[in-house]
Amino acid sequence: MASTRSPNTKVPTEPRNLDAPFFNAAEVAWLLDISVKTVYRRVSQGYPCSRRGTGPINVSRADLQRWYELDRVQPLRPPRRTSRKSLAPIAA
């Protein structure tokens, strides 16, 4: 017998429509490859989302892009090349 999950599941789920204007917390977790708990934590930290009071979390496509940009790792700058100095002591 196939089991059905409630819509408030804590398991990341694949969105039915990838072109949808909004995604719920489980779909955002699946899209970003993070846990649903992390989605709720990020919303409480101030990441942009659309929600009504204490209702379900809905994240728009634009907000999802902003989340991606906020979490993007910037490449490290290569160290500066310094001129090589002689290790011999200066004769005074």
What does this protein structure show overall?
With 92 residues, the chain is of the alpha+beta class. The chain is 32% helix and 10% strand. The protein has three helices and three strands. The chain has a three-stranded antiparallel β-sheet with strand order 1-3-2. α1 crosses α2 (36-45). The protein is elongated, with a radius of gyration of 23 Å. 13% of the residues are buried.
- Report the major sheet: 3 strands, antiparallel
Average pLDDT confidence is 78
- In terms of DSSP E residues, the strand content is 5-15%
Low-pLDDT stretches: none
Summarize the helices and strands and which ones pair or pack.
Layout: E1 22-24, H1 25-32, H2 36-45, E2 50-51, E3 57-60, H3 61-71
Antiparallel strand pairs: 1-3, 2-3
Helix pairs in contact: 1-2
Describe what is shown at a glance.
The protein is α+β, with helices and mostly antiparallel strands and 92 residues long. It has helices at residues 25-32, 36-45, 61-71, and strands at 22-24, 50-51, 57-60.
Feature tags:
92 residues, three-stranded antiparallel beta sheet, alpha+beta
